[in-house]
Design brief:
alpha/beta; 7-stranded parallel β-sheet; two-stranded antiparallel ribbon; 44% helix; binds zinc ion
């Protein structure tokens, strides 16, 4: 049994264990939502709510999550968590396994700078990756049609390539890999010119629009992108959001379920065409869900454990993805970002 955790961390731990136990998504989401609410309260307001017994007046906190918060706040392990830990003790991966897995990663293939919707300059992202011990970081800002995320036109991307080349001279042997998180358009084509896609080191292709399309349409769209010779990584494949999140200019995105598609067909194509399936480590994504991760493994896919960082500190989130890879039993040699930069580039150029 672990030591007592602060309330939000205890709620996240509960959500994590519920998910591993394949509990229904809404139950898992309830604990993640409550954790986000606690994060937003601040310590004094949390104290006051607990004292005045008004926690459950807050949207997103119910009797179960409220009780767990009160117990964690009192320095105890919440009963709900204690029961889960006991029931799933044999499933909990050893922290050592996850740490070893993480240590095998040499870089990150999905990150954003302030050129699109990230918060920091390229240099700060690169220096943070360097400080984490990475050998490389792929800079994958958004593509033109994603205007809400300030996607890069071909001209801006060309300019970015020059900036990266200059920075690389300075930071060598560390290397910023040129890249893009390219929208998969509704017809399955990629949202950037052929010429630029061919020049980039890493192309992550992701669906960001029309996420509720029917399964046949979504499958055809994803297959076209996975089979595209420029695509190296299929980004956050289901598009799910587990908790609400803040976006630029105060926009707020609500949680959303997974997109529906023929996962066997899509992962089968990933395996056949050498497109890695991303294990997205963002806490609100954790995409693919474990059952799909297990399916992709079974179908012979390779993986990229990425942070999708939009700020330097988020580059530290790879542990989330490693935890899931360890749990499902992904062999470390199936993870493309355990390779050296030279080996990785030989692979993306194939
Ligand atoms: Zn994305
Ligand atoms: Zn992204």
């Amino acid at each position: 049994m672990s030591d007592p955790l602060p309330p939000a961390a205890a709620l996240r731990r509960i959500a994590f264990l519920l998910e591993r136990a394949r509990e229904p998504t809404h139950r898992v989401a309830a604990f993640r939502t409550a954790a986000a609410v606690v994060d937003g309260l601040g310590p004094e307001e949390l104290d006051r709510r607990i004292r005045t017994r008004t926690l459950t007046d807050l949207r997103g906190i119910g009797p179960k999550t409220g009780a767990a918060i009160v117990q964690a706040h009192a320095g105890e392990v919440p009963e709900y968590l204690a029961r889960l830990e006991e029931a799933h003790a044999e499933l909990v991966p050893l922290a050592d396994d996850v740490a070893g897995y993480r240590a095998a990663l040499r870089g990150d293939l999905h990150a954003h700078s302030d050129w699109s919707d990230g918060g920091s300059p390229i240099r700060e992202m690169a220096e943070a990756a360097l400080a984490l011990g990475h050998d490389y970081l792929a800079l994958t800002d958004h593509s033109p049609r994603l205007t809400v995320a300030n996607g890069l036109s071909p001209e801006r991307l060309e300019r970015q390539l020059d900036v990266v080349a200059e920075l690389n001279e300075e930071l060598a042997p560390f290397r910023v890999l040129t890249g893009i998180e390219c929208d998969i358009l509704v017809d399955g084509s990629l949202d950037q010119t052929e010429e630029l896609l061919a020049r980039l080191d890493v192309v992550v292709a992701s669906v960001h629009s029309d996420l509720r399309a029917d399964s046949a349409a979504m499958t055809a769209r994803m297959l076209a992108a996975v089979e595209n010779p420029h695509t190296d990584v299929l980004g956050h494949c289901t598009g799910r959001l587990l908790v609400p999140r803040e976006q630029r200019e105060g926009r707020r995105q609500r949680p959303r379920p997974e997109s529906t598609f023929d996962a066997e067909a899509v992962f089968g194509a990933c395996a056949a065409h050498g497109t890695a399936v991303e294990i997205n480590s963002r806490p609100e994504r954790l995409d693919p869900p474990l059952r799909l991760l297990a399916l992709a493994l079974e179908l012979g896919c390779e993986f990229a454990i990425d942070t999708d960082a939009h700020a330097p500190g988020q580059l530290d989130w790879q542990g989330n993805g490693c935890e899931r890879a360890v749990e499902v039993g992904v062999p470390v040699d199936r993870v493309v970002n355990t390779r050296t930069a030279a080996d990785l580039l030989a692979w993306t150029r194939m």
